[in-house]
Specification:
Elements (H helix, E strand, L loop, with lengths): L1 H21 L3 H15 L16 H14 L3 H16 L6 H21 L3 H12 L6 H31 L16 H12 L2 H4 L6 H14 L3 H13 L5 H8 L8 H28 L3 H11 L6 H18 L4
Helix pairs in contact: 1-2, 2-3, 3-4, 3-5, 4-5, 5-6, 6-7, 7-8, 8-10, 10-11, 10-13, 11-13, 11-14, 13-14, 14-15
Length: 329
C-alpha cells in the first residue's frame, strides 16, 4: 500500500544517508538528505505512525546544514538552519515544547557558522540572542558565552589589522576608520573582559575554561595591561582542577571514583592551553623588551612538563632574560 511504500522509502533513504556518512562521502550525504527532504518535507503525514524514532523534518534540515558547513558551503548551511527554524514554527501548539530545543540548536548552528565564516558582526548578534534564552543547559550556556566573547576578540583583532594596513599604505595612512557605536576594538576587548571575568567560577566543568584564561591574557596584553595578563597566566597554571597535586589528592581519597580516561583527556587539554598561553605571552613580553615579566612567565612554565624537549628551550629563554636584565653569573 502507499503508506507502507512511503515508510519503506523513508527507511531506505535514511540507511543510504548513514552509509554515505560512515564512508565520509559528504557530498553524497548532502544529495541523499536533499532527496529525503524533497520527498517528505511537504508530506502532511510525516512523521509516520510507526516512526517514533525517525528524525523530524527540522532535524533533517539541521543535519544537511552541518554537512554543507563541513564542505565549506556556508551560505547554503545557513539557509538550511533557517529552514530548521521555520520547520519548528509550523508544528501544532500542543507540540511546540518538543521543538523548542531544536530552534535553539538552529540558532546556535547559525551563530557557529557565522563565526567559522569570520563574519563576527553576525556571530555576535546571534550569540547575543542566545544569551537571552532562559532554558539553555549549563554547558550550552557556557559554550555560547565563550563564543560570544571570542567573537568580540576576533572582531577587535580584525579591525586592528585593518587599521595597521591603512597606516602602512602611504595613500591611506591618514584615513581613520569610523566604527559603529560599540564596535571599536577597545569596546570589543572590554566585552571580552566582561564576559569571561568569572567564567571559570561559573562554569568549572566547561572545556572552554583553560582557553578562557588564554583569551583573557591576550586581551589584557592587547590593552597593555601586562600585570593583568600575567595574572591570567598564573591563574591558568595554579587554579587548574587538573593540577598534579589536585589529581593526587583525588586519587588518594577513599570514597572518590576517578574517571582516568576523562582526567587524562582534561589534563592534556589544560596542559595544551597552559603551554600555548604561557609561551605566547612570554615571547610577547620578550619581544617588547619587558624581560622581567617574560622571565616570570618562563619560570612558571617549567613545571608543566618534565620532558627535556619542553624544559631545555625554556631554560634557554630564561637564560636570555637574565642576560638582558644584566644578571649574568
Amino acid at each position: 500500500t502507499k503508506p507502507e511504500y512511503k515508510q519503506y522509502r523513508r527507511d531506505v533513504l535514511l540507511a543510504l544517508i548513514r552509509m554515505y556518512e560512515k564512508a565520509q562521502m559528504k557530498v553524497e550525504v548532502a544529495k541523499a538528505i536533499e532527496r529525503f527532504l524533497e520527498e517528505f518535507a511537504s508530506d502532511p503525514k510525516y512523521p509516520f505512525e510507526n516512526g517514533e524514532k525517525e528524525p523530524t523534518i527540522a532535524d533533517m534540515h539541521l543535519w544537511l546544514g552541518r554537512v554543507y558547513r563541513d564542505i565549506g558551503a556556508f551560505r547554503m548551511a545557513i539557509n538550511k538552519f533557517y529552514d530548521a527554524l521555520n520547520a519548528t514554527l509550523s508544528v501544532p501548539k500542543e507540540r511546540k515544547f518538543e521543538f523548542k530545543s531544536i530552534s535553539d540548536v538552529a540558532m546556535l548552528e547559525i551563530a557557529d557558522t557565522y563565526l567559522e565564516m569570520e563574519d563576527y558582526d553576525n556571530s555576535i548578534k546571534f550569540f547575543s540572542r542566545l544569551l537571552k534564552v532562559d532554558d539553555l543547559h549549563e554547558i550550552e550556556k557556557a559554550n555560547v558565552l565563550f563564543k560570544h566573547a571570542y567573537s568580540h576578540y576576533q572582531r577587535a583583532r580584525s579591525n586592528l589589522r585593518r587599521e595597521a594596513r591603512l597606516k602602512d599604505d602611504p595613500e591611506k595612512k591618514d584615513v581613520r576608520i569610523e566604527y559603529d557605536p560599540g564596535t571599536a576594538p577597545k569596546y570589543d576587548f572590554a566585552r571580552v573582559k566582561h564576559g569571561l571575568r568569572d567564567f571559570a567560577f561559573r562554569f568549572p566543568k566547561s572545556y572552554y575554561v583553560p582557553e578562557s584564561y588564554y583569551l583573557l591574557a591576550l586581551t589584557h596584553d592587547e590593552l597593555n595591561e601586562k600585570d593583568d595578563a600575567l595574572a591570567q597566566v598564573k591563574a591558568l597554571l595554579d587554579k587548574s582542577p587538573y593540577h598534579p597535586d589536585a589529581i593526587a589528592k583525588a586519587q588518594n581519597h577513599p570514597t572518590r571514583v576517578i574517571d582516568r580516561v576523562e582526567v587524562a583527556k582534561m589534563l592534556a587539554l589544560w596542559n595544551f592551553w597552559k603551554k600555548k598561553t604561557g609561551n605566547y605571552l612570554a615571547n610577547q613580553f620578550y619581544e617588547d623588551g619587558d624581560y622581567f615579566h617574560s622571565l616570570r612567565v618562563y619560570q612558571a612554565l617549567e613545571g608543566i612538563d618534565e620532558a627535556p624537549s619542553w624544559r631545555i628551550p625554556l631554560r634557554y629563554q630564561t637564560g636570555l632574560c637574565y642576560e638582558r636584565l644584566g644578571n649574568v653569573g
